[in-house]
Design goal:
The complex is a heterodimer of chains A (346) and B (60).
Chain A lengths: L4 E3 L10 H25 L1 H6 L1 E2 H6 L7 E5 L4 H5 L1 H7 L6 E4 H9 L6 E4 L38 H15 L4 E5 L4 H9 L3 E7 L10 H8 L4 E2 L5 H13 L3 E5 L17 H7 L8 E6 L4 E6 H13 L7 E3 L11 E3 L2 H5 L3
Parallel strand pairs in A: 1-10, 2-7, 3-4, 3-9, 4-5, 5-6, 6-7, 7-8, 9-12, 12-13
Antiparallel strand pairs in A: 10-11
Chain B lengths: L20 H18 L12 E2 L8
The chains are: A alpha/beta (346), B mainly alpha (60).
Amino acid sequence: MSESRQVTDDRAASPFGPEDLRRVEQLTRAETIDIALRHAELNQGYVRTGRSLRDLLKSSPAPAPSTLVFGPGPSNHRRNPAAVLLQARYAGPIIASDGALGYLLRRGVVPQYVVSVDPHPTRIVRWYGDPELASRRADDYFQRQDIDIDWQGDEQAVNQDLIALVNRQGPGIKALLSTSVAPAVARRCLEAGMAVYWWNPMMDAGEGPASLNARLQELNPVPCIATGGCTATAALVMAVQIFRPRRIGLLGFDFGYYPDVCMDHTQYYDALRVRFPRDYERYFARLVNPDLGEAYLTDVSHYCLRTALLELLDLMPCPVYNCTSGGILFGKGITTLPLKDFLGLA
Amino acid sequence: MDLLKGNYKLGKNVKVPEKSKAEKDTEEFEREALAQLGGSICFVSKPKKLIWDGEDESGA
């Protein structure tokens, strides 16, 4: 496998052209929107009898000094911020994306909120412990990559442990579910005793009756939230809306892989290889994070999501600190800071 | 094939060749792979606000 290109400072030049980014987005747009709309229909019963995110926002607590948001990036395992939080006896609000839930619970940190967006029909429920895992078709998605390396052991045993853990802690966690998630995710959260609050993912910039947002609201009359294209960014937006904090700290927001990870062990490798069999390597790049002085591997999909987050920062009413200590999230509007220093801010 | 259902009979039996397991597996793999390329990436849009609640202007 040949070496991917290295870009030293993305502030001057993107490793991928705008055409690459548009192409990847367009390739999957139709298929994903279809499944998201289908799930929005299938979830109507849950939404009708459940709670809206609107209810939560109306009863929001007083603004918090700071809030932590956990993405699912590999730095969670490499840097282990949970240990820092436990040592510091951090008692502030934590919102986790679903991919970070297992990591946190196994290390004794219980987030107040967990967020799910991705409409994948079978994978997302795995983050909550999948009661039907034994009967599902084999899927190496969790084992071949480093989002949650705890899955790299005996996955049936890991799954059973996670089911028990989520069932034990569920009543203390609120699940913020996008109407796009598979109904199995809603079922699992409710079975685990979580209070579920529903919202729609903003699918386009439109607000008129012909927009996808309006179509979603017609199906389920709950607020539309900007997701930036991934669960971690959606969790960041939720943190702003619910806690109105003075500052936000991000953890597990890598949008890439550590330098020692091979392309074929990355999240989007299979997809890129299938779609672009002749030149899939051009959709990977090594990007130097100037704040950390280290090069990280990334791909066009992660880069697209990272760009979307940076674009949303203009709408954020408070400063955003990246405490991940790894990955490619840097640039205008982001302050890189070690977690310990963030916790020490007055 | 549903389109061929009708009020007539074909003159001879037509056998539709079954796809091999390898073909089916490949198709399934490609479908799965493409699905994971996007994840929730399709929800990337450049919104003017973080939240939109229909007629209610409760934006951030």
